[in-house]
Design brief:
alpha/beta, single chain, 167 residues, 5-stranded parallel sheet, 16% strand, 7 helices
């Protein structure tokens, strides 16, 4: 059965890294909301208006629809911190008779802050201002078992975790 993998977690939790590995392991197409925003010329180191994120979500829904018509498995990389956002993508997948697997990166706040500071120091990618970072942390609606959720919480080696869930 074709699958949509929703990779969700806080900023700096490692979603993109994990999404790429899952896409490779499952021979899926990887789609990133951040990439869609950057392709439209938006600077993600600054807060972006909700309307811009909504445009990216609508673009993503259209892309998923196209990929699902082609019967491609898809890994969606986004914070997806609100359940209604995950439900929106789940609805698209179900309309194409896809199963949905939610992968939640449960990373402690201290680790997220450490990673965020490392990004600031190295400038290897966009950082996030406090006003963009902390509201997501505070409002995050953690996926539950009703969302067919697999959790990665750093208690297992990533390679072992990947093997146990995607072999």
């Amino acid at each position: 059965m074709r699958t949509l993998y929703l990779v969700c977690g806080a900023p700096f939790s490692g979603k993109t890294t994990l999404a790429k590995q899952i896409a490779e392991r499952t021979q899926s197409v990887s789609v990133s909301l951040d990439d869609l925003m950057r392709q439209r010329g938006l600077d993600l180191s600054r807060p972006q208006p909700a309307e811009e994120w909504e445009k990216a979500h609508q673009q993503c829904i259209q892309l998923l629809d196209t990929l699902m018509h082609q019967e491609k498995n898809v890994v969606l990389d986004d914070t997806l911190f609100l359940k209604w956002l995950r439900d929106r993508y789940r609805k698209v997948a179900l309309s194409h008779q896809y199963q949905v697997v939610t992968i939640y990166l449960s990373i402690p706040l201290a680790e997220l802050e450490k990673r965020r500071q490392q990004v600031v120091a190295t400038q290897e990618r966009n950082s996030l201002a406090n006003e963009s970072f902390y509201p997501v942390i505070e409002q995050f609606e953690i996926p539950d078992s009703h969302e067919n959720t697999i959790v990665f919480d750093m208690t297992t080696d990533l390679s072992d975790w990947m093997t146990s869930h995607f072999s």
